[in-house]
């Protein structure tokens, strides 16, 4: 925070050419401050942004904080190594890092060997015939296929191009703003294409280059401001219809050069959690765990005002360390419950509260563990956190603390006898109730469809997402069966297509051993051999419902009166008091 009278903040909008923006980045005049999140976009995001530029679509404004202060910044943006900080005013990106990284990383890429950074292939090409952006691997693969079809065993020798360069119809994005690179790419088109095709590709290359050279975008600079004022401006600007994410805001406001970096510590902890299968956990829950450890309001309305208080900022390191210890222990408990991935965790707040318990009480008694176990299963199957307001969630947190401190021996804010939600009628991975069902399905120790090995549902979900849950029948009749949870099952990386084909290929002994591990009925083998597909899924649905109800009874969860009900894509506790 600044001392004394603050200068009036100057917000200066301007419109800049894309090439000018990229040059400023390469020269180190626009940088990414360390408190920003790392680059998180995926390969399709790069292509989508470049396509927007080509079409002349707006891609949003870039917001930078201009200051003469030497703020610690990232050594590169995208694939581009950034020059050392020049003297004078420098702009630090507050909003637009992913977009600027994509533009600089693809347009300023050199011909060096290291084109894959952050698991992104920065060598992007534009298919002049198909009019689409693709990465280097696909361009090379498609080029090899085209050559084989043309009867050429090897590509023709061209001493001007590096080995593994794709066909000339793939125009390198890195050459669009580089005059020499542009003419070299056009030379290749002229030499290796003929007639009408050559002219079409040259015209398309010219259109492509002009689109990028003429593209302009808004750059908003904040001057005469300290970091707190600059971030406050950011927090009040709408970004794609929403305000700045709370964890980003807190990370920026608590940044101090050479001191504790909350953003960096959160990212470091996220990397650790990824090794445990919880890398997809939203950072907001980690931040709430830190606030809980500091005995602060995890639902505070104005996080900015809270975090800039000196007494809070000074305690952040100890709060983070304490929260991290609690979460590590809470994850060990959850893994004992069968929760081996964030995609099997019904609610992030369950981890926050269990982490706070373990922060206070690292080694609970066996009786307390059983109490917490029942609390977890009740909140999971009833959808408790999806239907309460923040006041109720805060009371649940205080009750958890009292239990950890030995001041209470019961948990009553969550009614332990409330009935579970019925079996979901549709599969939706965003639904806590569906995730609770997946925990039951995982408890059956499902086997691979291609062997005798047991699958590991948690790690599979962490690696593959919803692709780890395949279809029994991908195009069922009647069509409504496609959405049924009974039409989904865990599959490994080697599996492709619907499961019916893989199941039908197994012999009877293998099926008798495998089908029960996926919750198929006792007559599943007969139905499969008779090709009674709809009957198989209907019978599996009944088996899964009964099996899950027995699973709930074992965990002391009260059964619902109804058998099925619509699945709800839950949100965590609402802000309504």
What can you tell me about this protein's structure?
The chain starts with 9 loop residues before the first strand and ends in a 12-residue tail after the last strand. It has four domains: 10-118 and 216-253, no CATH class; 136-202, no CATH class; 262-404, no CATH class; 423-565, no CATH class. The model is unreliable at 152-163 and 238-244 (pLDDT under 50). The strands form six sheets. It has a five-stranded mixed β-sheet, with helices on both faces. A three-stranded antiparallel β-sheet has the order 10-9-11. A two-stranded antiparallel sheet has the order 4-5. The protein has helices at 18-26, 43-55, 97-107, 136-149, 179-192, 195-214, 227-236, 246-253, 262-275, 283-293, 303-307, 310-336, 348-360, 366-382, 390-404, 432-443, 457-464, 499-504, 508-514, 524-529, 533-554; strands spanning 10-17, 30-31, 62-67, 76-77, 80-81, 90-95, 116-117, 120-121, 124-127, 132-135, 170-172, 216-223, 423-424, 469-471, 488-490, 564-565. It is α+β, with helices and mostly antiparallel strands and 577 residues long. Helix 5 (179-192) packs antiparallel against helix 6, helix 10 packs across helix 12 and helix 13 runs parallel beside helix 15. It is built from 21 helices and 16 strands. The chain is flat, with a radius of gyration of 28 Å.
């Amino acid at each position: 925070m600044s001392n004394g009278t603050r200068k009036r903040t100057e917000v200066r909008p301007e419109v800049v050419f894309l090439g000018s923006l990229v040059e400023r980045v390469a020269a180190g005049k626009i940088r990414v401050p360390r408190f920003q999140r790392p680059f998180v976009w995926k390969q399709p995001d790069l292509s989508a942004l470049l396509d927007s530029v080509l079409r002349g679509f707006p891609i949003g404004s870039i917001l930078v904080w201009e200051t003469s202060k030497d703020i610690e910044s990232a050594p590169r943006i995208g694939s581009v190594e950034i020059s050392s900080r020049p003297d004078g005013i420098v702009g630090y990106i507050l909003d637009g890092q992913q977009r600027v990284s994509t533009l600089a990383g693809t347009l300023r890429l050199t011909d060096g060997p290291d084109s894959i950074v952050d698991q992104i292939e920065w060598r992007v090409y534009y298919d002049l015939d198909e009019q689409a952006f693709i990465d280097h691997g696909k361009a090379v693969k498609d080029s090899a296929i085209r050559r084989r079809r043309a009867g050429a065993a090897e590509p023709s020798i061209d001493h001007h191009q590096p080995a593994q360069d794709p066909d000339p119809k793939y125009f390198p994005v890195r050459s669009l703003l580089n005059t020499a690179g542009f003419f070299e790419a056009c030379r290749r088109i002229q030499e290796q294409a003929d007639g009408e095709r050559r002219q079409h590709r040259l015209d398309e290359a010219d259109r492509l280059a002009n689109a990028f050279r003429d593209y302009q975008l808004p750059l908003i600079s904040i001057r005469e401001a300290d970091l707190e004022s600059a971030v406050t401006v950011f927090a009040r600007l709408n970004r794609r219809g929403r305000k700045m994410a709370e964890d980003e805001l807190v990370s920026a406001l608590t940044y101090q050069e050479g001191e504790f970096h909350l953003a960096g510590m959160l990212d470091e902890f996220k990397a650790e959690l990824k090794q445990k299968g919880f890398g997809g956990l939203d950072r907001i829950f980690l931040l709430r765990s830190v606030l809980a450890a500091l005995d602060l309001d995890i639902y505070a309305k104005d996080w900015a005002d809270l975090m800039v208080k000196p007494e809070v900022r000074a305690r952040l390191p100890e709060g983070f360390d304490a929260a991290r210890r609690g979460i590590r222990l809470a994850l060990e408990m959850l893994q004992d419950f069968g929760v081996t991935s964030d995609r099997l965790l019904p609610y992030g707040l369950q981890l926050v509260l269990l982490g706070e318990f373990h922060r206070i009480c690292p080694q609970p008694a066996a009786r307390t563990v059983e109490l917490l176990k029942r609390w977890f299963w009740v909140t999971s199957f009833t959808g408790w956190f999806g239907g309460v307001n923040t006041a109720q969630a805060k009371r649940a947190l205080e009750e958890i603390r009292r239990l950890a401190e030995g001041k209470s021996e019961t948990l009553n804010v969550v009614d332990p006898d409330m009935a579970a939600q019925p079996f979901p009628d549709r599969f939706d991975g965003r639904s806590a109730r569906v995730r609770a069902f997946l925990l039951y399905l995982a408890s059956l120790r499902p086997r691979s469809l291609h062997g005798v090995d047991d699958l590991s549902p948690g790690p599979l979900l962490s690696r593959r997402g919803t692709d780890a849950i395949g279809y029994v029948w991908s195009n069922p009749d009647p069509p409504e069966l496609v959405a049924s949870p009974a039409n989904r099952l865990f599959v490994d990386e080697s599996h492709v297509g619907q499961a019916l084909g893989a199941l039908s290929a197994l012999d009877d002994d293998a099926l008798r051993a495998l089908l029960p591990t996926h919750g198929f009925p006792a007559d599943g083998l007969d139905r499969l051999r008779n090709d009674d597909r709809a009957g198989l899924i209907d019978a599996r649905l009944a088996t899964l419902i009964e099996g899950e109800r027995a699973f709930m009874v074992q965990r002391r969860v009260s059964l619902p009166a109804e058998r099925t009900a619509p699945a709800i894509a839950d949100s965590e506790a609402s802000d309504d008091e």
